[in-house]
Design brief:
This protein is of the alpha+beta class. Helix content is 20%, strand content 41%. It has two helices and six strands, in the order αββββαββ. Strands 1, 2, 3, 4, 5 and 6 form a six-stranded mixed sheet that branches. Strand 3 and strand 4 (63-77) form a beta hairpin. The protein is elongated, with a radius of gyration of 16 Å.
Length: 145
């Protein structure tokens, strides 16, 4: 079974953010499945996920232009939660911008917004979600090529 280009983008981002391991988060805590604050008792984690996609456009005969949101969500807990979550996003962003085509899977990556949440009730927790718009092309009849 072939994965969609959108999911291949998530996989490529995961490799970029784990090979070599980042300094701000261990590779085992960089995930493509949803992370809950309970998954991060102490330390940091990073979730990579797809967001919304707008309608495809016809770029050329037989080719559709597509765009998907790519969300990086850093979660950190502990006494330095805000600083640690910020460090994860800064390091992840630098790695993504080093190759904005993700090895040729896409032709453009644009920064959208950042959302921050901080909580001090119970354990200290910081969540930073950074969203990108990733533009790519597929054949007219396929999501995977």
């Amino acid at each position: 079974m072939t994965a969609s280009i959108a999911y291949q983008i998530v996989q490529a981002v995961s490799v970029k953010l784990t090979t070599p391991a980042m300094a701000s988060v261990i590779a085992a805590n960089v995930r493509t499945e949803p992370i809950s604050p309970v998954d991060v008792e102490t330390g940091t984690a990073l979730n990579i996920e797809l967001g919304d996609e707008g309608p495809a456009t016809f770029d050329l005969i037989g080719v559709k232009g597509r765009a998907t949101e790519l969300k990086l969500t850093a979660i950190a807990s502990g006494s330095s939660a805000v600083v640690n979550a910020d460090a994860v996003i800064v390091e992840a962003h630098a790695r993504l911008m080093a190759d904005e085509t993700l090895g040729g899977l896409c032709f453009d990556m644009t920064e959208l917004g950042v959302r921050r949440e901080n909580a001090a009730s119970g354990k200290r927790l910081s969540i930073i979600e950074k969203t990108y718009l990733v533009n790519y092309r597929t054949s007219d009849a396929s999501l995977s090529s």
